[in-house]
Amino acid sequence: MMLWLVLLLPILSVTSRSISIDHRSQSNTIADRIIELVTQGEFRGVTYNRLAALVDTIGPRLCGNESLTNAVNWVQNAMINEGLDNVHVEEVQIPHWVRGEEHARLIQPRNAKLSMLGLGNSVGTGPNGIQAPVLVVRSFDELNARCGEARNKIVVFNPQCDWQAQPIGCYGPVVGYRVGGASHAAKCGALASLSRSAASRSIDSPHTGVMEYDLTYPKIPAASLSVEHADMLDRFQQRNQSMEIFLYMEAQTLSDVVGYNLVAEVKGSTLPNETVLVSGHLDSWDVGQGALDDGGGAAISWTVLSLIHALNIRAKRTIRCVLWSCEEFGGIGGDQYFTAHQNEVPNMSIVMESDLGVFHPQGLQFQGRPEAQQIVTTISKLLTSINATQVVSGGGGEDISKWMQHGVPGASLLNDNWDYFAYHHSRGDTINVLNSTDVDLAAAVWTVYAFSIADLDSILPR
Amino acid sequence: MMLWLVLLLPILSVTSRSISIDHRSQSNTIADRIIELVTQGEFRGVTYNRLAALVDTIGPRLCGNESLTNAVNWVQNAMINEGLDNVHVEEVQIPHWVRGEEHARLIQPRNAKLSMLGLGNSVGTGPNGIQAPVLVVRSFDELNARCGEARNKIVVFNPQCDWQAQPIGCYGPVVGYRVGGASHAAKCGALASLSRSAASRSIDSPHTGVMEYDLTYPKIPAASLSVEHADMLDRFQQRNQSMEIFLYMEAQTLSDVVGYNLVAEVKGSTLPNETVLVSGHLDSWDVGQGALDDGGGAAISWTVLSLIHALNIRAKRTIRCVLWSCEEFGGIGGDQYFTAHQNEVPNMSIVMESDLGVFHPQGLQFQGRPEAQQIVTTISKLLTSINATQVVSGGGGEDISKWMQHGVPGASLLNDNWDYFAYHHSRGDTINVLNSTDVDLAAAVWTVYAFSIADLDSILPR
C-alpha cells in the first residue's frame, strides 16, 4: 500500500510519456493486484454469482415492498460475514406504490390482449375499469393541436425516435411521455393515458417506470404499451379503423414505509473521516429481476470493498459503499442520505454511482473541474491492461446528484451499454443480460478508481 | 413477354460471360419491369401494407380458429377484387387445438410468475393444476441417467446451444426437446414437461410450437418457458435450492374442423396446364401477429401474382399461388393438397415456399438436379441490380415437401434471417419485425424466379 502511495503521486506531475513508464514499472502494483484478483483470482465470477443468487432468490425489489427489505438483509448479512467495516442500515421514508392486478384489451377493431405495464405512481381505474375509444398522438404538440378530440378517450402517446441510431440518446426525448403524458392527456379531458415503451428494441415487451402527476389536472391511470402494440394502434388510426380499449388497473399508493440505505466501509488508514463513496441502488422495478437496473451497479460497488478487504489493504481515506433505497421513484434514498450527511460535503472526495449497466467497461464518466479530471485521467492508465482507460466528461447518478450540486466531483461507469434500453424496466431485466467476465472487469475499474482516489494525498480539487 | 421468351433461352446455353452481356443488353426487360414496379413503382410498400392491414385487423391465425377462416376470406376477397385468375379455396381437414387459460408460478424458493406458453397438441392439467417439485436436465441423456429422480416431478429441459454463433443452426438440435420432451419425461414418471424456448435471444419471451406424444406413455402437459426462467431454474438446482412449480393449462384438442387452402393463379399463355407453384402458409401461432411466420411468405407469394397481373403479362406456364392452411401442426394443408393434386407431379416445374423470413433477400435456396440448378443460376443474373444473385443448395418447406419427395424441384427464399428465431412463435412475431423495403425486394426475387421458370421452354429438369 505504501508503495502505491509513494509512487502514484509523483506520476501526477509528470508527462504522459513518463507516466506510462512509471506505470509499467512500479506504481501499478495494487491496481494490478486488484485486477488480477477479480479477473483471474478467487474473486473471478464472485460478483456475478452473488448477484445471480440475490436476484434469483429474492427477485425484483420494488420500493416499499418486503422483497427490498429482504434484499437489504441478505446483503447486510453477507457483508457482516465477510468482515467489512461499519456495516449498517440507515432508515429512510419511502413511498409504497402497489401495482395490483392489471390488464388491457383491444376491443375494436378486434379483441386482443394488449401488452402493458402500469406506471409507478399511477392511480388505478376503479373496479369497473375504463372502456373508451382511442386517440393516438406522436407528440405533446400533436396532442395540443387535437386536444378537443381527446375528451373521454384513452390517449396513446407514440413518440418516434431512431433508437437504432441512438440506443441511449433516445431515452431522454421519449421518457417525458411516460412521465408527463397522463397530466397532458387529463388536461384535454382524457380518461387514461398509455405510452409507447421507452425501449430501444422489443420482443413485445412493455417497459414500466415512474410517472408524475401535475396536480392541476385530474389524476388518470397511466400505463405503458409495448412498442409493437403502440405502433399497431397508430396504424389503426392511420387507416381510420375505429378503436376501443378496455383498461383495468388496481394500482394505488399506500402510506409511506420505512426503507433502508445499506452502508458498509473499508476505513481509511490515515484520513478515515475523508471519504470516497461508491454506490448503486438496491431497489428495482417489480418485473424481471432488477439485475441490470441496478443489481449490477450495487454488486460492483459491494465488490469494491470485498476486493480491498480480501487484499488486506487500506487506502488513506475511507471507501464507503452505499446501496440506495428507492431510486426508482426519484432518488428517494439518495436524497435523504444527503440531507442526513451533508456535513460531510467538505470531506467527500468523490461520489460514484453505477446505474447504467455493467457491460464491458471502457472507463469512467467524470464530472468535476479540469484539474480533477486530469488526476482521474492519470489514474486511468492503471487500467491499461484491461483496456478501460477512457475518461469522458459527464456522468453522475440520481442518488448522488445532490452531492454533485454541492460541488463534490461525481462519476459513473463508462461501459458498452448500447443494449441497455432493450431490457431496462422490463421483464427482460434478468441476470441473463449480464456477462460474468464483463461484470468482473467492471468491478475492477470501479475498485481501481475508488482505491486510487481514496489514496491520493488530497481530496479531488473542486 | 415474347422478348423475354426469345432472349432468355439462348442464355442458358452460353458461357457465363456471354450470359452477363446478354443479360445487361436485352433479356432483362421483364425482370427489370418487375423489380422497378415493386421497388419504385406503384407496388412499392404494397406487400408490407397489405400484410400489416391483414395481421393488425385479423390478428394471429391459429389452425382451427375462426380467425384463420377470416384471414382466408379477407385475402380471397382482395384477390378477386384484384382480378386474379381462378381464385378459390380447397377444403382440408385440420386439427383444432385450443390453448385456453394457462399460467405457471414458481412456488419455491420464491413466489413468482413464470413466463410460459403451452405447446400445440398438449393436453391440459385438469382444473386443479399440477404442483410438484422440479428436476432440470439439459439433455435426453441426462434425463435417462436421472430417470429415477423425475418421478412425480415437473421436468424442465434446458438444452444448451451457442445461438450467437448459430442463430439458425441451433434450432434443429434444440427443438427436439419441445417436440419430444413430454413423452421422454412421462417415460420416467414425470407429471409435466417444461422446455426452454427455442429462441436465439430473448427479452423474457416464451416461444410456443407444436409437440407430439409417443402414445406408449401417458400424455402429460407440455409448455415452454422463457430462456431466462429456464436458466433461473437451472441455477436453483445448481445451488441445491429446492423448487416447486404450479402449472395450470386448459389446453385441449377438439374435433377436427374444415380449413381452406387458398389458391389463385395467373394462367399460362401457351402451357396453362404446366405450373410453377409459389406459396407460404396463412396459419400462424396464436400469439403475436404471425407476420413473420408466415404472413410474410404468404404476402410475397400473393404479390407474385399481383405484379404479373399488374404488368399485364403472362408466362408460358401457369403461376399458382397457394396459401396453406395449418402448416404449424405439421404441414396439414400442404399434405392434403398434394394428395388431391399429385396427378400434377409431371407438370409441376417447381414448388416454392417462403417460410423462413422475408428479411433482406440474398437469392434462392434450391433443391434439384445440377442441370436445374444451372438454369436457376442463370436466372439469378436477372437480380443483379438488387444484389440478390446467390443460389445455394438446400431449401424447401414443410408444405411442399411431398412434391419434392416425388422429384419436383423445390426452392425457398434465401434472406438475411439471422434474427428469425428471436421472434418465431412468440408474441414478438409482429409486423414490426419486417421492413417494407426488404419485403419489396423479397417479392421481387420471388416474382422474377417464378416468372422466369414459368416462361422457360421446358419444365425444369428432374
From TrEMBL, chains A, B:
Keyword Endoplasmic reticulum: yes
Gene Ontology CC: one annotated term: extracellular space
Residues of the Peptidase M28 domain: 261-446
GO process terms (BP): peptide catabolic process; proteolysis
Pfam family, one: Peptidase_M28
GO molecular function: carboxypeptidase activity; metal ion binding; metallodipeptidase activity
Signal peptide segment: 1-16
Location of the protein in the cell: Endoplasmic reticulum; Golgi apparatus; Lysosome; Secreted
Keywords: Carboxypeptidase, Endoplasmic reticulum, Glycoprotein, Golgi apparatus, Hydrolase, Lysosome, Metal-binding, Metalloprotease, Protease, Secreted, Signal, Zinc, Zymogen
Assembly and oligomerization: Homodimer. The monomeric form is inactive while the homodimer is active.
Family: Belongs to the peptidase M28 family.
The protein's name in its UniProt record: Carboxypeptidase Q
UniProt source species: Rotaria magnacalcarata
